[in-house]
Amino acid sequence: MQILFFAKLYLLTIPVFFVVDLLWLGVVAKHFYRDHLAHLLSPDVNWTAAVSFYLIYIAGILYFAVAPALARESLGLALLNGALFGFFTYITYELTNMATLPKWPLKVVLVDTLWGVVLCASVAAGSYLLGRWLLGA
């Protein structure tokens, strides 16, 4: 598949990721992180780092989950690879934090890792469907 195709798919996937993640952060788990991590949270967000992370992370979902699924025409593969990408990336982040930051709660490790699985599987599936639509399939 062409670079132009993936550039379009990437641009279409960005809002999908943000809608799903912001629903979690702003509605479902609005108080969860503050309640468990208030002792570590900064009042100032480094927006350059945050936006850079999201843009790179979305590219990872496309590369590791969506592209292989499109090549095999398999929504199931998009879901599986998205879930696995979410699991491995989130659990790495969570366990690193637990190992290096004071009082990083096990509850956050478990909930946030589960969220990473759901988020990445959902975004991968949505992006896969957008890719099929772009291909006219």
UniProtKB/TrEMBL annotation:
Short name of any one Pfam family annotated for the protein: DUF2177
Superkingdom, natural source: Bacteria
Annotated keywords: Membrane, Transmembrane, Transmembrane helix
Protein name: DUF2177 family protein
Transmembrane segments: 9-27, 47-67, 74-93, 113-135
